Amino acid sequence: MKIDKLDNLTNLLMSDKKGSTHKAGSADFQKILEETQADQAAESQKLSESGSVFRAAGIPDGPLGVFSFPPLTELGNPFQTQARSLQTADQVLRVLEEYQKGLADPEVSLKNIYPMIQSLSSEIQGVSQDAEKLPANDPLKRILSEMGMLAAVEVEKFNRGEYVS
């Protein structure tokens, strides 16, 4: 097939949804393009608004109630989360070491150990919050969970009076 004439390209006719015809490149084309873009913007805004209503109501975004992952911007930087979790774990270990030394020293009274218990109980909340932010397959999550449980057990032992002689 041989194409002879290309001059007639401007005379091509396009039909819109209503069935009327418009010449390509005319002012009507620009008007149709703007209307279509406005309609698409309105539809996307409706979808985003309905999604936020569902999220506010606690309904998951996924099909059939399947869990959908939050956007990456909500998750934050995983390296910052791990670094923060490591700092929290280090702080808990330091407090536990001080607590161990205090219990081992007969010169140290339980009144002097009590501030360590208060510090340890406040660190437990930080450990659990940091563990929740980590992915399920992260080994640090398991370590933080075990540290939190150990610290909680020690706080309860102290509060029950197991170390009173």
What's this, in brief?
With 165 residues, this protein is mostly helical.
Q: Look at the helices and sheets and give the structural class.
A: mainly alpha
Principal-axes shape call: rod-shaped
Number of H- or I-type helical stretches: 5
Number of strands: 2
Main sheet attributes: strand count, strand direction, barrel closure: 2 strands, antiparallel
| Helix proportion | 55-70%
Strand content: under 5%
The first-to-last residue Cα distance is 104 Å
Description:
The protein is mainly α and 165 residues long. Among the domains are: 26-57; 77-159, no CATH class. The chain has helices at 27-56, 72-75, 78-104, 110-133, 139-160, and strands at residues 13-15, 21-23. A two-stranded antiparallel ribbon has the order 1-2. Helix 3 (78-104) packs antiparallel against helix 4 (110-133) and helix 4 (110-133) runs antiparallel to helix 5.
Secondary structure topology:
Blueprint (H helix, E strand, L loop, with lengths): L12 E3 L5 E3 L3 H30 L15 H4 L2 H27 L5 H24 L5 H22 L5
Antiparallel strand pairs: 1-2
